[in-house]
């Protein structure tokens, strides 16, 4: 029986190894990067080094970065509006770029590499503790890297102006755009595990925000568990039972990001960024109206939702396989079927 896995979620860490430094040759500085060529949005033939950059079409709101490995293309959205697109070069055979939902962990501009005799490195934004990053580099027209995502030098500098630590980054091995169905392969890659530990206390929820006072927030609704889990900086700070109306049937796993705008009741609008495993992404507000959850924890969770907060709704259970170090966490979930 093959296990089905929810997803791997990597969140912000204050400590990260030298980003890609051990993977880049001493000469891999800005001088060796593809400078890039800015083109108009509807350019029919998008060549290596080409990019589009229009940040003025959406001046505020959370930024979401999506990298399509098959298309060798990056898409940048701010508050749900496309503001940039760029050719990229990803990991070569044997050093594949990992797929999944990540956040930017650390940003470096013109930092000196400890393994490259102090050579200046181009703009770099780390997305994994093991050294995978978005950075300026050479774009030969095929995947040549050791797992990092290479960008044109000019585009990398522009991208750096709109991102921050905790900006969401989605690396996928299937062609897709926000709101469209995708099957990002290793995004669902996990190992077999068990059910979450311990029963919930009377009242149907627990709330322990002191376990992780600050950091990126992720909220996961698992319909098989009938439980919502709240993570901050990779640490579980709360969970609660919920009851979904019998008329609702969730199929697949769906990721959303909170936008800057709120409605008359103060509820955030949500951008559907990824759908995995089939099924349409539910309308978050419509679904909320047909979901019963203890009001006490609902108020607490709403208070920590900010633009860029991640929400995942899934038809897969969450497992006990949660690894946590200070400021770092990976969440996986499995179900043997």
CATH superfamily of the largest domain: L,D-transpeptidase catalytic domain-like
Morphology: elongated
Share of β-strand residues: 25-35%
Mean pLDDT: 75
Radius of gyration: 20 Å
Number of domains: 2
CATH class designation of the largest domain: Mainly Beta
Return the string of H and E elements: EEEEEEEEEEEEHEEEEEEEEEHEHEEEE
Strand arrangement across the biggest beta sheet: 14-21-20-23-16-17-18-15
Low-confidence segments, given as residue ranges, are 1-28, 111-119, 182-195, 320-337
Largest sheet: 8 strands, mixed
Please work out how many helical segments DSSP would assign. 3
Descriptive report:
The protein is 7% helix and 34% strand. By secondary structure, it is mostly beta strands. The protein folds into 2 domains: 169 residues, Beta Barrel (L,D-transpeptidase catalytic domain-like), CATH 2.40.440; 132 residues, Beta Barrel (L,D-transpeptidase catalytic domain-like), CATH 2.40.440. The N terminus and C terminus are likely disordered.
């Amino acid at each position: 029986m093959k296990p089905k896995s929810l997803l791997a979620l990597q969140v912000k860490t204050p400590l990260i190894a030298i980003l890609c430094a051990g993977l880049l040759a001493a000469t891999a500085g800005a001088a060796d990067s593809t400078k890039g060529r800015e083109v108009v949005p509807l350019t029919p033939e998008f060549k290596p080094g080409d990019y589009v950059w229009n940040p003025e079409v959406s001046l505020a709101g959370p930024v979401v970065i999506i990298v399509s490995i098959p298309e060798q293309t990056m898409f940048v959205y701010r508050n749900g509006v496309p503001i940039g697109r760029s050719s990229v070069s990803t990991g070569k055979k044997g050093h594949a770029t990992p797929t999944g939902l990540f956040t930017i962990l650390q940003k470096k501009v013109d930092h000196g590499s400890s393994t490259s005799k102090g050579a200046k490195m181009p703009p770099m934004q780390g997305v994994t503790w093991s050294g995978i990053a978005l950075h300026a580099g050479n774009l030969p027209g095929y995947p040549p890297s050791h797992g990092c995502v290479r960008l044109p030098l000019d585009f990398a500098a522009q991208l750096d102006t709109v991102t921050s630590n905790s900006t969401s980054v989605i690396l996928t091995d299937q062609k897709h755009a926000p709101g469209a169905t995708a099957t990002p392969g290793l995004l669902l890659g996990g190992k077999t595990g068990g059910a979450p530990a311990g029963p919930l206390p009377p009242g149907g929820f627990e709330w322990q925000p002191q376990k992780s006072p600050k950091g990126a927030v992720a909220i996961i609704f698992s319909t098989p568990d009938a439980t919502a889990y709240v993570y901050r900086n990779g640490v579980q700070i709360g969970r609660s039972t919920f009851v979904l109306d019998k008329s609702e049937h969730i199929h697949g796993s769906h990721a959303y990001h909170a936008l800057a705008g709120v409605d008359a009741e103060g509820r955030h609008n949500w951008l559907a960024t990824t759908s995995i495993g089939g099924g349409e992404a539910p309308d978050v507000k419509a679904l909320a109206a047909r979901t019963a959850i203890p009001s006490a924890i609902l108020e607490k969770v709403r208070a920590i939702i900010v633009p860029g907060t991640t929400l995942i709704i899934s038809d897969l259970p969450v497992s006990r396989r949660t690894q946590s170090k200070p400021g770092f966490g990976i969440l996986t979930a499995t179900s043997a079927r």
